[in-house]
Design goal:
This protein is α+β, with helices and mostly antiparallel strands. It has two domains: 58 residues, no CATH class; 66 residues, Archaeosine Trna-guanine Transglycosylase, Chain: A, domain 4 (Roll). Helix content is 21%, strand content 30%. The two termini are 30 Å apart.
């Protein structure tokens, strides 16, 4: 079971999405603001994806990251760093100002668009998830 509050704690946020509107199907948690009518077919998905569980890892969706980014301090990067980050590169700590210590940080560009997630590792911020993953997966 995917617990949104546990995911939120990693970023120092709180999740305000009501759990009564969340439904887990095939290791994916969906937000369903309206109730869908019953169907004879077995559902494979429905609503907005909030998070996905792969093996023991929970991967938050960008919808959920945008929800968290509105309530916590984020790491803002310039245009060049944003490009390199979405290509899968890590970020040097010396190039950014870190907010309060967390397990993971949300990275945004100058327009406040969520680019992905990093975690602290010595002199680097390791790329955990970025928007470029969708393009790199298509190339495989």
């Amino acid at each position: 079971m995917i617990n949104l509050q546990d995911v939120a704690k990693e970023f120092g946020a709180t999740c305000t999405i009501p759990e009564k509107h969340c439904k887990e199907l095939n290791n994916t948690l969906f937000f369903q603001p309206v109730t869908f009518p019953p169907s004879k077919e077995e559902a494979v998905g429905g609503g907005i994806i909030l998070a996905k569980k792969e093996k023991e890892r929970i991967i938050p969706s960008f919808y959920l990251l945008e929800h968290f980014a509105k309530q916590i301090p984020v790491i803002e990067v310039d245009e060049k760093t944003a490009y390199l980050f979405t290509c899968g590169r890590d970020i040097f700590k010396k190039n950014v100002i870190l907010p309060a210590p967390q397990k993971k940080y949300i990275v945004v560009n100058e327009q406040k668009e969520v680019l992905g997630v990093v975690k602290e590792d010595r002199a680097m911020l390791k790329n955990v998830l970025d928007r470029g993953i969708f393009l790199r997966q298509e190339l495989r």
